[in-house]
Amino acid sequence: MKTKYVVAIGTVGLVALGIYLYNKARQFKKVFDNMRVWPSGIRNIRVQLPYLLFNLDITLQNPTDVPFSITGASLVTLRRVVVYRNGKFLGQAEVNLAGLEIPAFGTTVVRDLPFRFELVNVLDNLINAESLTVNDLTLSAVVEVFGQQYEIEG
To answer: Pick from 11, 69, 143, 148: most CB atoms within 10 A?
Structure first.
């Protein structure tokens, strides 16, 4: 008889946890569908053949009324940030940053992401460009939530 209670309580607990995680995932999807990302600073530029290496700051904006805040337990991870210019791939940073906090209607800056661009891609863009500034770049951030990846395009 005691076993029946343990099984019943365990089942109710698992169902409640499943409902909680489902609702959290829906909230995160709402945030990610509306989130914006853009470059906000560049430094420590260096050449290490055949790559151009630098650190880039990115700003993540949450334009929704749902605050996004998870730390620890690796439930949310910023996996990588990819940089394009006029639709052409330039390079990316493998980040694997667990835990993000972005307030409702707010922004968060993620600093010093270690980017690596192949010099061939950079030279191709410089040859075909009249100018190249941080504002010319398009960023795509890949975030993993509860094992599912979302792409946020800037």
So the answer is: 143
